Amino acid sequence: MLLGDERRELCEAGRQTAESGLVIGAAGNLSVRSGDLVAISPSGVELDRLTPEGIPVIDMEGRVVAAEGDVVAEGGGAPSSETPMHLAIYATTDAAAIVHTHSTYGAVVAATMAELPPIHYYTLLLGGVVRVADYAAYGTPELAGSVRTALAGRRAALMANHGGVAIGGTLAEAYENARLLEWLCGVYVRAKTIGEPRLLTEAELGELTERGFGPPALPPR
């Protein structure tokens, strides 16, 4: 099976993503890149019901790859509607995996803020203040471009009135970055219910950066 290990890995990550509440229904999508091929979750399928044989494998132009004896090449699931966004991210970063979520607190912040302020020093694990990409309809080149801009130098971004996206050097790392993004959003939203949160200053964040605190480097392609 073409990219069999990656497709099985996507199934497990899909179950984790659904069970942790980062998505509901058939919302959200995941992908893993291997060379010039990408295994991506299919459109319209709940992430906790993925099967390896139902996961499309595409090239960097978004075409489903034909491989003799491969189930997907014989009519498996159609690639996610967010394929343009995934491919735009892979084209401009060294990410090897992407997790796109519709998590509750992430959606709240994405609907109300221009960025997620540095409420906690773990913000640095995502590369710094998390930007909110300008709104555009899902699956469009406009959304892909907006997310690509918001992700510059970051491991995660929010998408206005939509959700969040996280990247990593592995699928496990991208998933953990997605969980961290939701945790940071939850801390900020809950803090706002008590009062005006104290935010970390650039100097305070810079001190930690100088001490080496931050995300691990993405492996080069």
TrEMBL record:
It comes from the Bacteria. Residues 8-189 form the Class II aldolase/adducin N-terminal domain. InterPro entries: Aldolase_class_II_sugar_metab, Aldolase_II/adducin_N, Aldolase_II/adducin_N_sf. Keywords: Lyase, Metal-binding. SUPFAM superfamilies: AraD/HMP-PK domain-like. SMART domains: Aldolase_II. The keyword Lyase applies. The keyword Nucleotide-binding does not apply. It holds the Pfam family Aldolase_II. This is Class II aldolase/adducin family protein.
